């Protein structure tokens, strides 16, 4: 027996004998179970810092978590746009989102709030504890700086969603316990929240992140792209910062575009739309930042896009059809737009029985943008049954259109703005009008229409509606004012109201924290 073991056995025996007397062996009794980790005992080595950041990334997957029968959190951002409808109608919360009758009890709304603040809490804990960890060789201070940059990127991402969904929100930047002085925080003005978002993204941009990467972690290009998106949003409603922030958005987007021009094989548009949802191309080329999925941990969560009980996968008849395109939106695409061509663009109207069998007609258009042919199979090729497809959050196409929109708002379309728009539009195989045919107004509408068609079913359209106070009219192909616009996805249409510019705070959250009052107007 080793000396170490002999010493410990002797110590236990000694403690046992002393326990029979009037005193105890305090160092033995006070010993803590190493499996009961606390923030104080855990953050001691660089591997712990890496684990903290990994946990924060993992929090992004709340996006695809379930929200009751035949529904998931991501559907909240699609149901309210009017571009989607449902074939099942069995989830009352989802139905309320489609009909714009949701309130603070709606599960999706509460799940989004909790999910975003879990990311923020994990990021805050990492930002608080990682600086206290000694990064000794082979670890480096550069590694520490990079991890802190990733934490700030993820915190900014979460706050950017939260402030757009609820407006004034609690601004929490430190780890919280029941004894924290601000354990029940009040809501901070949106201006303060955006200030933190910008500070975090600027810090992330300067944190020594790789310029690009294929492992799914934050990069300099991701930080620049998200910052351009934040500036564009700040230029519009509700902050209405206008020209200064359109300029910031254009300049930051141009940095990304210039990198693409110098490195076209690393950052660019895919040649085809099918490559956008090709499993072996995730985190590459057009995909700047994505939520990571792998069946070993968590498979792709967008199965609610499958048609209701039709055999498009290896599983045979199945699927929920709880989020499907409206005929009116699908029909509004210009004739010849490759995005509407069956199995070539964003939609499919036929598929192969059980994934790899005979072709059959679906009877309606369905969303193909997130359909994983590697997992589900294609004609004559069985699927792997492992849906490892990621969910895109930022694509290079969006950076191009951010630049085009922002640059145009500075006075008139420029050749560079036109070129960015044309690059996206040309992929549709439609003819792009010449540069000289556009005015500032007509170019604005062209870019916004392109956003509606390009980013449908990616969780982007609703935020465009809110920041622009405009909604695409599928009949006129123009734009209506937000308030009063009729969504065509439910019955004869449900009109958007001023209150819909924000979501309500969750009722239970307001009961837990009275300092969140007042509720958002109209709820």
Largest sheet descriptor: 2 strands, antiparallel
What strand line-up does the widest sheet have? 1-3
Shape: globular
Q: What is the count of helical runs? A: 18
Oligomeric state as shown: single chain
Structural class by SSE content: mainly alpha
Mean pLDDT: 92
Tell me what you see in this structure.
A hairpin with a 6-residue loop joins strand 9 and strand 10. The chain is 41% helix and 8% strand. Helix 4 packs antiparallel against helix 7, helix 8 packs antiparallel against helix 9 and helix 14 runs antiparallel to helix 15. It has a two-stranded antiparallel sheet with strand order 1-3. Strands 2-8 form a two-stranded antiparallel ribbon. The relative contact order is 0.11. It is built from 18 helices and twelve strands. The chain has 523 residues and is mainly α.
Brief summary of the model shown:
By secondary structure, the chain is mainly alpha-helical. Helices cover 41% and strands 8% of the residues. The strands form six sheets. The protein has a two-stranded antiparallel ribbon.
Please render the helix and strand layout as text.
Blueprint: H1 3-19, H2 26-29, H3 39-42, H4 46-58, H5 76-79, E1 84-85, H6 92-98, H7 107-129, H8 141-166, H9 190-205, H10 220-235, H11 243-262, E2 287-291, E3 324-325, H12 327-332, E4 347-352, E5 359-367, H13 373-376, E6 377-378, E7 381-382, E8 391-395, H14 396-408, H15 415-426, H16 440-454, H17 461-468, E9 470-472, E10 479-481, E11 486-487, E12 494-495, H18 507-512
Antiparallel strand pairs: 1-3, 2-8, 4-5, 6-7, 9-10, 11-12
């Amino acid at each position: 027996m080793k000396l170490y073991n002999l010493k410990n056995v002797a110590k236990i025996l000694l403690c046992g004998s002393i326990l029979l007397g009037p005193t105890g062996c305090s160092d033995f009794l006070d010993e803590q179970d190493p499996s009961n980790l606390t923030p104080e005992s855990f953050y001691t080595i660089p591997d712990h810092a890496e684990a903290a950041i990994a946990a924060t990334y993992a929090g992004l997957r709340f996006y695809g978590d379930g929200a009751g029968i035949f529904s998931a959190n991501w559907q909240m951002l699609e149901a309210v746009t009017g571009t989607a409808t449902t074939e099942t109608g069995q989830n009352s919360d989802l139905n309320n989102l489609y009909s714009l009758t949701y309130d603070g009890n709606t599960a999706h709304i509460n799940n989004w709030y909790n999910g975003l603040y879990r990311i923020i809490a994990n990021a805050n804990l990492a930002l608080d504890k990682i600086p206290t960890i000694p990064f000794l060789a082979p670890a480096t201070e550069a590694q520490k700086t990079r991890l802190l940059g990733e934490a700030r990127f993820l915190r900014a991402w979460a706050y950017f969603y939260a402030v757009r969904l609820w407006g004034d929100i609690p601004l929490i930047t430190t780890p919280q316990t029941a004894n924290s002085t601000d354990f029940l925080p009040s809501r901070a003005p949106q201006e303060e929240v955006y200030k933190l978002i910008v500070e975090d993204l600027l810090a992330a941009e300067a944190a020594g992140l790789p310029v690009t990467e294929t492992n799914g972690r934050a990069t300099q290009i991701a930080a620049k792209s998200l910052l351009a998106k934040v500036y564009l949003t700040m230029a519009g409603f509700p902050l209405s910062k206008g020209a200064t922030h359109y300029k910031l958005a254009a300049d930051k987007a141009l940095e990304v575009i210039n990198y693409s021009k110098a490195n076209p094989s690393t950052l660019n548009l895919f040649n085809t739309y099918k490559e956008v949802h090709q499993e072996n191309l995730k985190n590459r080329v057009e995909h700047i930042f994505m939520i990571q999925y792998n069946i070993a941990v968590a498979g792709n969560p967008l199965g609610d896009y499958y048609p209701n009980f039709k055999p498009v996968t290896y599983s045979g008849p199945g699927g929920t059809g709880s989020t499907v395109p409206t005929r009116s939106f699908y029909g509004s695409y210009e004739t010849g737009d490759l995005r509407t061509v069956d199995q070539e663009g964003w939609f499919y109207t036929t598929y192969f029985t059980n994934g790899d069998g005979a072709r059959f007609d679906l009877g309606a258009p369905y969303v193909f943008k997130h359909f994983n042919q590697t997992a589900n199979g294609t004609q004559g090729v069985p699927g792997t049954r492992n849906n490892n497809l990621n969910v895109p959050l930022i694509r290079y196409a969006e950076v191009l259109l951010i630049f085009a929109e922002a640059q145009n708002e500075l006075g008139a379309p420029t050749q560079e703005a036109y070129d960015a728009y044309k690059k996206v539009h040309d992929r549709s195989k439609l003819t792009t009008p010449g540069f000289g045919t556009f005015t500032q107004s007509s170019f604005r509408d062209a870019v916004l229409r392109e956003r509606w068609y390009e980013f449908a079913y990616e969780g982007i359209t609703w935020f465009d509606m809110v920041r622009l106070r405009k909604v695409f009219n599928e009949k006129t192909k123009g734009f209506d004012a937000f308030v009063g616009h009729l969504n065509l996805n439910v019955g004869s249409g449900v009109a958007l109201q001023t209150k819909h510019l924000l979501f309500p705070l969750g009722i239970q959250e307001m009961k837990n924290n009275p300092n969140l009052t007042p509720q958002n107007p109209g709820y």
